[in-house]
Amino acid sequence: MFTQPRFGLSYLIELGENKMRRRLGQVLSSTLLLLTAGNARLAAIENEPAANSTALGAGTNVSCSRRATPVEPADPSADSSVTATISHKFIASQRFRENTSPAAEVKISWLGATFMRHFAVKIEDDTNDVALQIHALNKASSDNQIIAELHDRYETRLADVWCFLKLQANGGDGALQTNAVPNIFFVRDAAGELGAVDTIWGGAGWEIGASPVRGQRQWPSGSRVISR
């Protein structure tokens, strides 16, 4: 006997419910997989080491005797007390001069206008040597960011800058890098204002610039910072 197919309303309803159940099961399975993957990713992130939020790498101690060479007075008739006083001063204008000849004490190919106006006119007391440190920048950073991390150790002197330059007068290896990335010193100018003095080896000689400590200028990652 031939059986007639079931196409009644109840059959259609049952068929629809079964399809809906299968579809709902698939959606729930996919959602569960996504939630499991998300939780695994969150756990991995929580276990990852924190990104380095500091600008400066650990400092490396460096030694550089900065005792200035005694300077003779311009007037030969000056008495010995004047001579003694002058010999214990670091006179920037007598050191920082553009000169790339073989006879140059330090080969300097360029001095910036700001450096010449505010720093080259400075005279410093030639005090005892201080312990200095060199840091590498982990990331691009502004003057204020660097100073904040150095706390009260950020300030150096022009005599320190000169001391390091003399050790690498012709751009050889040393504490300062010579790969066209800046070496940064925070120094007060002749008026007592804090500025950033940067030195870069330009191939023929050192290029020395200066800028005020303000604004959001970013020093590139890899720059070296010299501090106390």
Secondary-structure element series: HEHEEHEEHEHEEEE
Average residue pLDDT: 80
Question: What spatial form do the alpha-carbon principal axes imply?
Answer: elongated
Q: Biggest β-sheet: count, sense, barrel?
A: 8 strands, mixed
* Helix count from the secondary structure assignment: 5
> Helicity range of the residues?
25-40%
Indicate the proportion of strand residues: 15-25%
Quantity of strands, as a count = 10
Unreliable spans are: 42-51, 68-86
How many domains? The number is 2
Distance between the termini: 105 Å
Whole-number radius of gyration?
34 Å
Helix- and strand-based class?
alpha/beta
Explain what the structure shows.
By secondary structure, the protein is α/β, with parallel strands linked by helices. The chain has two domains: 1-48; 60-227, no CATH class. Helices cover 31% and strands 20% of the residues. It is built from five helices and ten strands. The protein has helices at residues 9-47, 80-87, 113-118, 143-150, 158-167; strands at 60-62, 89-91, 108-111, 123-125, 132-136, 155-156, 183-188, 194-201, 206-212, 224-227. Strands 1, 3, 5, 6, 7, 8, 9 and 10 form an eight-stranded mixed β-sheet that branches. The chain has a two-stranded antiparallel sheet with strand order 2-4. The radius of gyration is 34 Å and the shape is elongated. The protein starts with 8 loop residues before the first helix and ends with a strand.
